[in-house]
Fold this protein.
Amino acid sequence: MTDARFVEREVIGKQHSKVIKITIRVHSPSESDTGDYRCRYEICVDDLCVRTQEIGGVDGMQALTLAIGYVVLEIDRIARESDYQLDERLLGDMRQCAIPLVKVMKRSKAPQRTARRTPKRRKSPK
């Protein structure tokens, strides 16, 4: 499996008064031994890699699109948990890949069951 760097983007954010740099690296999709394709991504905050994952797809295009979608979801999670304010201009085009992914994830969640109340029995008139 070749793992040449495919694309890298830096997103600048702020945490209170501190400026942070989030580096996103998406590697070139490559075919695995099983015939599917894998695309690896890394997310680093101030040169510390906080997330690395491989995403699979039926072909290279799907693996790449899904990886970018997962990157956006992870960036949003990291920003929310760490109270980062991100420069949205650098994420806007990437969000197009995440929108279908979020819809699929929401649809695949099992419906929550609510406890049923048993109806009160009416007293029969005497």
